[in-house]
């Protein structure tokens, strides 16, 4: 039996099955730095340490050892199917008959890195920046369309001492296609320590990036709060409604609202750059989505929109007014239609994402 | 302490750290079906089973229990950061002070499913087809650009009894933007069993797909061999060169080759639909990449190009002839320039991918 085993990024993230399969193996074949994470499992086994670039040899050696009657483990860091040894292995299996084998999945760098950053993932792309075997134009095309698709993007193998061009091109393509204010998480593992840093996309090109760094580029909705990188999923939150909300919507339902700027209001302009008072109270309240600038008042269960002027942008009002007028006719409708409202909010963020969102996060916090 | 824990798709794929954290917990909070995988770890703990859609309540409950002094574990299947509980959690943490928490990554469905199919992954996208909280247009846009980028695509939450439209649209968008012959892997877990099925993209719409199915759509290079779905990474393989290769390239280096069809050759047409004999012997031999039709002769270490006519397509010859003429001037150059040749081959496959590739895989094998 040949087991292609992913051992994750750190010893603690190895799976039960991976441990079992390593224990059962007679022969262990690995790129040598991976072995330090499983040193204690290697006693009494034949251990074949190989260098980078020997992928083909590692696989042929495994098959040779299996044919001799051994249980063989080929070790990949992370997951063996994501830039690991599985693809190389399967490219040659039809050379041989009667091979027994299995792939043991592991925790890949994207999810491991995300766990150290907070919760940056949603729909996403994983792209390797190594152009050793992949033409740069292919990598560039993937980055461009992943950026346009607004996928969160995890970059693997971003840079080596001699290979810097794909990373430079990635930075250029990303800022052409995504807001330079987008948060980017940078994760390194040094020994047992995980080191994270969050910057803005526009600063990415100047960061200290190595071969084993993982980079996670947020999407249009990603924000940073208390040092965590967060991509909201869009659930409706529970929070106290401001007291005046009902009073405002009473007038709204009666058609008695002031569209546009309400210069006569004693609070005007209650928000910086306020273009419209049409939704004096936001129909999406409480969104609990810091990407537009709001935040929780700590320990009060109150969502605070003071730093969010999104619903006061004329372009946003134009997108949502008809839906709200036609569908929200009583306070109960906010609850009944909550999923549609969440989707409307999300669609409007996408349509108006070139507006200057108030991404008021503090990178050093 | 609140631990947001991913337990993978099956008990055996849980990580050591996840097990430790569950053992340390006083209170376990989970969507109830996930608990069956960790039943044996629950003794003596307060277990709060919740239903689908209670995400917010689960998080608030966890915080309440943590404030009472408990170690709390919130359980997600797969990884908590990919459509799991992490995003919901981080959306509300700034409501509270002094919360201690950590995210424990797990094996996500894409890598778990890939391990059951073979090695289908390379640069990839993960996209959820649930439009409960995400507008369908947003999902459609992501699918379209991921398809154009030629990313391998893993779809999560593809379909429910009432929610079929996103899956239908996905199938339509994919066949508009990718070869309908592209292999697609379908993976379901039933109890402890993993059930896999491979079909062609054009057949995907008619497959039996459920909420917990994972779908993996290959890229331009993905092929099926011996029932495994394989996306080649592009390594140079070791194999015996056919004897006449050197003789052919001797003539090639002397400029003494027959461009186009060689009607006078006694073997013409040695391949079906042969348009060009310019590369009587393929400069990329042995590619070990079944996507263009080749295969290994079992137990002989010989790569067999009989069913690959790719390098005999005029369009392919037009793409590669200048490079090969200018850069390969002796047999040694095949080795010295092997990385450039691999990239040229890959770039040419992309440029000419609308040609009718000979994807001669047998889905039932």
Q: Any overview of this molecule?
A:
The structure is a homodimer of 365-residue chains. Chain A has helices at residues 16-24, 55-67, 86-92, 109-117, 136-148, 165-177, 244-253, 314-327, 331-336, 338-351; strands spanning 2-6, 27-31, 46-50, 72-76, 101-104, 118-119, 124-128, 152-156, 183-190, 193-200, 214-217, 223-225, 228-230, 295-297, 302-304. Chain A is an alpha/beta fold and 365 residues long. A five-stranded parallel sheet of chain A has the order 3-2-4-1-5, with helices on both faces. In chain A, a hairpin with a 4-residue loop joins β14 (295-297) and β15 (302-304). In chain A, α5 packs parallel to α6 and α8 (314-327) packs antiparallel against α10. Chain A starts with a strand and ends in a 14-residue tail after the last helix. Chains A and B meet through α1, α2, α3, β5 and α4 of A and α1, α2, α3, β5 and α4 of B.
How would you characterize the largest beta sheet of chain A?
5 strands, parallel
Report low-confidence residues of chain A grouped into runs of 5 or more.
Answer: 357-365
- The helix content of chain A is 25-40%
Separation of termini of chain A?
50 Å
Question: How many beta-strand runs of chain A?
Answer: 15
Question: Approximately what portion of the residues of chain A adopt beta-strand conformation?
Answer: 15-25%
CA-atom Rg of chain A in angstroms: 26 Å
Order of helix and strand elements from N to C terminus of chain A: EHEEHEHEHEEHEHEEEEEHEEHHH
Oligomer: homodimer
Instruction: Give the mean pLDDT of chain A.
Output: 91
Largest interface: A-B, 100 and 99 residues
How many helices of chain A? The count is: 10
Structural class of chain A: alpha/beta
Write down the overall geometry of chain A. Answer: elongated
Strand order, main sheet of chain A: write it out: 3-2-4-1-5
